[in-house]
Amino acid sequence: MWSFIRRRLDPVDRLGEMLFGLIMALGFTGAVRLGREEADSRALFTGILGCNLAWAVVDGVMYALAEIFERGRKARIVRLARATASDDVALDLIAGEVDAPLLELTTPEERAQLHRWVLQIVRRRPLPAARLHRDDVLGGAAVACVIVLATLPVIVPYLVVANPVLAVRLSNLVALALLFGLGMRWGSLVGAGPFRVGCGLTLVGLVLVLITIVLGG
Asked: What is the reported pTM?
């Protein structure tokens, strides 16, 4: 399963989905606990696992829809660039799409040349179709798998600890530890200070835990 995930998602996407999954798991823990104060650990396990699986499916579907939307947005830009009678207008459209990540890396002359190259490619290549592709479905499945794998350790305490209150606290501790490790890894990838990012993500998770405790979770 992990090799399948690595083929379909880059490291940043994998870490992002793990982060969302863990934060949602913390939220589900509090929500299920608040709604089932008298439930035992097995009942909480079932409820939280169901919530996590549902979130995995929803996020996988949203990934596929986002890919279709992005493909449609690019197709719209291509249609507009082809339809305009003025190269200047077409170049302005292209600049609006590609300039943002290049501003700090290129000169205005280099960007202008790049815009002209893109316009030439746009006018000679077939118009991309805004439809669902096989890779979209597989990418969505990979997203769902990431979320399930990331949240499984969070629900293990409900299987091994009979006391539901203690199980909730252990589950929270596991989630916070995973958030810290995830932040360290993310920080090392983006060069943003692993320890600082790890502490920041842990603080976000701790705030969620405290909110649910205050509300009675």
From this structure: 0.74
